[in-house]
Design a protein that fits this description.
The chain has 582 residues and is α/β, with parallel strands linked by helices. Helices cover 47% and strands 13% of the residues. It has 23 helices and 16 strands. The strands form 2 sheets. An 8-stranded mixed beta sheet has the order 1-8-7-3-4-5-6-2. The chain has an 8-stranded parallel beta sheet with strand order 15-14-13-12-11-10-9-16. The radius of gyration is 25 Å and the shape is globular. The two termini are 35 Å apart. The chain binds phosphoenolpyruvate (PEP) and magnesium ion. Phosphoenolpyruvate binds next to helix 18. The site of magnesium ion has 5 residues, from helix 18.
């Protein structure tokens, strides 16, 4: 058995892919200071102009190749970068540095880039501040050409169908573009299993290995690569024995998918007759197809961040409404839970946003509902559109990242005010549209009783709940080994939330990734959860577990487990939890 190259990262999905390597962006460029002879100034400026022209040409080609089904925001994002490339003000200072101080073209551009980035970072307005990455991205794009035609993520002008894309980092928006370009899988050096890119990859059925350090230096363009997204392994130059093993594994997974498909129209009812609602998480309006194809009985989480990404303007009320109506139509009568904007951390309005300066801590900052309450012009059009959409089908509104009752009070007051406005304007909406909140901050779980008193439903967001409870950044692969959904502290907060909901007769669901994790579902059923929302690809596997479970027995086992939780060795605890389902 031979294998000349192997990378290890974090697993993201139960899937395997084999294809040829396509190396994209290799990460930030290193530029050394270099000056030129005064006689070379003309040539140096010429090099800069040629790099700008090449960057424009490359970006135009990408824009022309974006498939029509790609969200309009992606093309708008490319257009906004093209506009920047055409704007003289962006590179004029770099030209001056070459002319007056004899900087080399790349050093002049890099010098100017650092200054520009700082100007944007110092801006007070958070939206303008967030444009920093756009400027950075555009200048890096030109630098790439100055250094010999380097391409970056979505900008590679190549046929990617069936390829394994290997990159330093891939943004959530680029993940969508890669799906449309038919990639078989991707591997990144950066990112954890709960990052938005990883969640999106699962949702879009793209096998991915993330956080595989230095992977862009190991692999060669075009060589055959095996991606084992189940185990987080990526290999190249494998011999026939290994290839054969993985081809067999792919067939086994394929057969299992076909078997599960037979469950689509079977009810999600346990052996002892308890019904469990299995719902889908949606990233994009077009995901309604996958939700229905996998038998979802509703949408427990429709993430609306895509409406805001990669663009210069905010979506207005009509644009929101159009997106929600598309989802409502696509779901043909099953209910949808629309989550209000959760921008922040890895869900930024731009790409390449993971590189936050060390002073800032976006996960604890102005994200989600905090940002919405601070910027009403961001929030109100969305709330109005959700309420208006409720006249066209069963809609629930869900608020992310609640941490205090004062915050909840402010949100409910704005919703009430908008209800009155719509009434006065004679615009239809459902006056009984349920309003719920995500329990994804430990403070909210610990105060779940109080939240349940004021909300129509609660939904446990384990991706963030785990991040905040265990103090581990969910997008940082260096600490992803600590990301443990079965940690006793997490299980207690989940149980506390479920009990608070039950005591108030308020439905409690779960929409974090844990809800689609076969290892965890038996315990969640034993703890009393009866609504689970997950990426569409997991629905049938979880339905199989529900149909094979005796929930009364699971409840009994969960009680016993909690009783000995503090005395149990953590490994044995995890084993005991996994045994619940067998
Ligand atoms: C969560 O935090 O569990 C969740 C569902 O929200 P997101 O992953 O979008 O932060
Ligand atoms: Mg969350």
């Amino acid at each position: 058995m031979t294998l000349s190259c192997c990378g290890l990262g974090v697993a993201t999905a139960r899937a395997i892919a084999i294809g040829s390597a396509f190396l994209l962006d290799r990460g930030p460029l290193a530029i050394a200071p270099r000056s030129v002879d005064p006689s070379e100034v003309f040539d140096e400026i010429q090099r800069l102009e040629e790099a700008i022209t090449a960057a424009q040409r490359a970006l135009r080609t990408v824009r022309d190749q974006v498939p029509r089904s790609t969200p309009v925001k992606v093309t708008e994002f490319i257009d906004s970068h093209l506009l920047m490339l055409e704007d003289h003000a962006l590179v004029d200072p770099a030209r001056a540095l070459i002319r007056e101080q004899y900087f080399s073209a790349e050093w002049a551009l890099e010098h100017h880039r650092v200054r520009l980035v700082k100007v944007f970072e110092d801006m007070e307005d958070p939206y303008l501040r967030s444009r920093r990455d756009d400027v950075d991205h555009v200048v890096q794009h030109i630098l790439g050409f100055l250094l010999g035609g380097r391409t970056s993520d979505a900008e590679a002008d190549a046929d990617l169908s069936g390829c394994i894309v290997i990159a330093h980092d891939i943004s959530p928006a680029d993940t969508v573009v890669l799906r449309h370009r038919g990639v078989a899988a991707f591997v990144t050096e950066y990112g954890g299993p709960m990052s938005h890119t990883a969640i999106l990859a699962r949702s879009l059925n793209i096998p991915a290995v993330m956080g595989a350090r230095n992977v862009t230096s190991y692999f060669r363009q075009g060589e055959t690569v095996v991606v084992d997204a189940e185990k987080g392994i990526v290999m190249a130059d494998v011999d026939a024995v290994i290839l054969d093993h993985y081809r067999r594994r792919m067939r086994v997974l394929e057969e299992r998918r076909a078997r599960l498909q037979r469950l689509v129209s079977e009810p999600s009812i346990s052996l002892d007759g308890i019904s469990v609602s299995l719902m889908a998480n949606l990233e994009l309006p077009e995901d309604t197809l996958a939700a229905r194809a996998n038998g979802a009985t509703g949408v427990g989480l429709y993430r609306t961040e895509f409406l805001y990404m990669n663009r210069d303007t905010l979506p207005d009320e009509e644009e929101h409404l159009a997106a929600y109506l598309e989802v409502i139509r696509g779901l043909a009568g099953i209910p949808v839970t629309i989550r209000t904007l959760d921008l922040g951390v890895d869900k930024q309005v731009d790409s390449d946003s993971h590189f936050c300066p060390p002073v800032c801590n976006p996960a604890l900052g102005l994200r989600a509902i905090r940002l919405c309450l601070k910027e009403p012009e961001l929030f109100r059009p969305q709330l109005r559109a959700i309420l208006r959409a409720s006249a066209f089908g069963p809609v629930r509104l869900m608020v992310p990242m609640l941490s205090s009752l004062q915050e909840l009070g402010s949100v409910l007051a704005i919703i009430e005010q908008i209800r009155r406005e719509l009434e006065a304007e004679g615009i239809a909406f459902d006056p009984d549209m349920p309003v719920g909140g995500m329990i994804e901050v430990p403070a909210a779980a610990l105060s779940a009783k109080a939240f349940a008193r004021r909300l129509d439903f609660l939904s446990i967001g384990t991706n963030d709940l785990i991040q905040y409870t265990l103090a581990i950044d969910r997008i940082d692969d260096t600490v992803s080994y600590l990301y443990d959904p079965l940690h006793p502290a997490i299980l207690r907060l989940i149980r506390m939330t479920i009990e608070a909901g039950h005591a108030r007769r308020v439905p409690v669901s779960m929409c974090g990734e844990m809800a689609g994790n076969p290892r965890c579902v038996p315990l969640l059923l034993g703890l009393g959860l009866r609504e689970l929302s997950m990426q569409p690809g997991s629905l049938l596997e979880i339905k199989e577990i529900v149909r094979g479970s005796n929930i009364a027995r699971l409840e009994h086992a969960a009680r016993e487990l909690f009783a000995r939780m503090d005395d149990e060795d953590p490994e044995r605890l995890a084993e005991a939890i996994e045994r619940l389902g067998s």
